[in-house]
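To: structure subgroup
Subject: Chain for Friday's discussion

All,

I'm putting the inputs and outputs inline so they're searchable in the archive.
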Amino acid sequence: MTRNLEGEFDELSQQVIGCALEVHTQLGPGLLESAYEQCLAHELRSAGLAFELQRPLPVPYKGILLDCGYRLDLVVESRLIVELKSIDEFLPIHEAQLLTYLKLARIPVGLLINFNMVHLRDGIRRKVLNYRPAAVSPSR
């Protein structure tokens, strides 16, 4: 049986969200992002998921890659970016940041998770980047 790609990403997203819910249940809101990151890493490890913490993200500029200090909070199974926050509320810039990370890393799916919420479900955003091939110009 062949699984479609979207279904695989959705399943992985759900696993990560389940781990995040466990962290939030245990800790609640109000801690630093770094505390949630380490606890979520523990939950992902316990769930048998492969991940990288603080993966460097170079910025491509005019044909070269520059280390500008950007780091992805978590990359799960090499196919899902998880950007963590502990803030009062999401702003449009937070979603724009995740979308930019998805483009630069060439990873199509990401989760933005804000642990500083009474109910974690109110602090989760899932973004899917749709890659479309560039249109080919007809020859003149």
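Points worth raising on Friday:
The first helix runs from residue 5 to 27.
The beta strands are 51-56, 59-61, 64-66, 71-76, 80-85, 109-114, 124-128.

D.
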